[in-house]
Amino acid sequence: MKRGINTKCLHLEDEEGCFDNYGSLSYPIYQTATYAHPAVGESTGYDYSRLQNPTREHLEKIVAALEDGIDAIALSSGMAAITLLMEIFKPGDHVIVDSDLYGGSIRLFSNVSEKNNITFSRVDCHKEKVEAYITENTKAIYIETPTNPMMNVTDIEAMVKIAHERGLLLIVDNTFMSPYFQNPLKLGADIVIHSGTKYLGGHNDTLAGFLVTNREDVAEKLRFLIKTVGSGLAPFDCFLVTRGIKTLGIRMEKSQENAIKLANWLKEQKIVAKVIYPGLKEHPGYEIMKRQARGFGAMLTFQLQTKEQALGVLSRVRMIKFAESLGGVETLLTYPTTQTHADVPVEIQERNGLTNTTLRLSVGIEDAEDLIGELAEVFAEIGKDVK
Question: Which of 33, 74, 104, 386 has CA 20 to 30 A from 197's CA?
Answer without folding.
Answer: 33
